[in-house]
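Recall that a protein's primary structure is simply its ordered list of amino acids. Everything else, from secondary elements to tertiary packing, is in principle encoded there. The following example makes that idea concrete.
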Amino acid sequence: MNKVFSVLKGTAAVVLHFAHGGLLAVGLMVSVFVVLRVAEAGLTPRMLPSLPEFSLLGGTQHVSADADLQMPDLPATGSGVELTAQQKTVADHVSRRHRVARAAVEQYVTDVYAAASRYKLDPLLLIALISVESAFNPTAESAWGAQGLTQVIPKYHPEKLALFGPDASLLDPTTSIFVGAQVLREYIRLSGSVEGGLQRYVGSIEDPDQVYSNKVLAEYRRLSATFGPRLQTAEVAL
């Protein structure tokens, strides 16, 4: 510590000598002070407090990165699941539109709302994404290896899939929904917008026409118009 302090002190002295009290010297002195405080506390850059990340709510919020590395609390399964009025309406719509058994869709919708709540997404956005990706076919698989309802490619997200156990599969609807929601949230945060996150999700960041995001958002707006005001407090601001 003494050695580091001596080097930094000497460097600051040289800069001050040539800067004659200018702004450069002031800025460097502040930087040296911060480095010394970090060193004294025994912190590394990874341990420093992070800035608030891009909020999916359109405001500022803190989202723990560690939370994404933990097994999510999964919703209950089976006939005992109680859907809200909106969820029942959404399930009926999805069942009729995509010709999927109502009992299966009810569980999908339950999972969607639970995943949307955990990852701070609008559930109708997830419904729209699944409609576009797989038309609610849980066994869908693409030529590129994308699997399940949300068509995630497992080799690109092993750490997310591993949260569900060593034998987890994206062909399991619940796993697919939760992993897909986490991937979408991560991509929206990285891109800084819903449109950018959707384009990253499909692997088409360079598309100037944003064909994929326009398709998903068009479906999202149809759903929103059909089901009226969104009831969720944790949702993406579009």
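The longest helix spans residues 23-41. The chain has nine helices and no strands.
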